[in-house]
TrEMBL record:
Keywords: DNA-binding, Transcription, Transcription regulation. The keyword Amino-acid biosynthesis does not apply. InterPro entries: AraC_XylS_family_regulators (IPR050204), HTH_AraC (IPR018060). This is AraC family transcriptional regulator. Residues 173-257 form the HTH araC/xylS-type domain. One of its GO terms (molecular function) is sequence-specific DNA binding.
Length: 283
């Protein structure tokens, strides 16, 4: 239970251990308590390329005026959405690759995109996520969660379907389709079934996720033009247009929010992904 002295609003980011990173990115353990629990807390979930398994241990979360299920899958999201926690809250969100939804839960990523689907989890995984939601700093709870997830993957664990993502990024849809032995139409359909987003939308969102990793590491008055080029945009105006469409905010507004530590927790998965990629490249 949340105590009177609980932090008003905190999010613990638990990064997945190296051996689970092909499938899972992190867990976001969110707590709302103290004086903040007396008021509704609004949160904006930014457009992202990931799926999340969510467990609400205490309290409620509303989306579009309706309470969300206690256990559900959400995302990926092609646009930003707003949720509301009307009071105290304990929840845990397991951020994962969307293609894993089918082998793990028999849920098609396309059916979850931009929406919510109630699910029943394997009991050990459910209990472990609930424990992390309640006591995210507990080492034993974290260890049990990663162990339970590793067991749930099975042996051998599932592998990512071949979609020639490097070819898609570098040479476009037709090249990626040819690399996979599909027509462009077949590739587009398979891509959306597996990752939940159309290829063009996925490219735009993953490009914006690359920009996120740089927002928190640049000076408040640093060059957004450099960020835009390093993230794959044609120029700063291109980045501003796309990010405004995806998030309803400008790059400057997002960077300032991240540097101030405000309302940026939904951006953590993208930042974690980049850090993991950098770490892998060094090793």
């Amino acid at each position: 239970m949340l105590s009177a002295g609980a932090p008003e609003h905190s999010v613990d980011v638990l990064t997945a251990p190296a051996h689970l990173r092909p499938w899972f990115l992190c867990v976001l353990a969110r707590r709302i308590g103290g004086a903040q629990a007396e008021h509704a807390v609004r949160a904006r979930i930014q457009a992202n390329s990931y799926a999340c398994i969510n467990v609400i241990s205490e309290g409620d979360v509303e989306w579009a005026g309706r309470p969300l299920p206690r256990v559900f899958v959400a995302g990926p999201f092609s646009r930003s959405v707003e949720t509301v926690a009307p009071g105290a809250l304990l929840s845990a969100s397991l951020v994962m690759q969307p293609w894993l939804l089918w082998p793990l839960l028999r849920v098609n990523a396309e059916s979850v995109a931009d929406g919510v689907v109630p699910v029943t989890l394997e009991p050990r995984v459910h209990q472990a996520l609930d424990a992390v939601a309640r006591t995210p700093a507990d080492h034993a709870a974290r260890t049990e969660l990663w162990t339970a997830l590793g067991q749930a993957l099975g042996a051998p664990p599932p592998t990512a379907p071949a979609l020639a993502l490097d070819a898609l990024r570098s040479h476009g849809l037709e090249a990626a389709a040819a690399a996979c032995g599909f027509s462009s139409r077949q590739y587009r359909r398979r891509f959306q079934q597996i990752l939940g987003l159309a290829p063009a939308r996925w490219l735009r969102i993953t490009r914006w996720e690359r920009a996120v990793s740089q927002f928190a590491s640049t000076h408040p008055h640093g060059s957004l033009a450099d960020v835009s080029i390093n993230s794959g945009y044609a120029d700063q105006a291109h980045m501003t247009r796309e990010i405004r469409e995806l998030t309803n905010s400008t790059p400057g507004q997002l960077r300032n929010a991240m540097l101030a530590g405000k309302e940026s927790w939904s951006l953590e998965p993208a930042r974690v992904r980049i850090l993991q990629d950098v770490e892998s490249a060094r090793n």
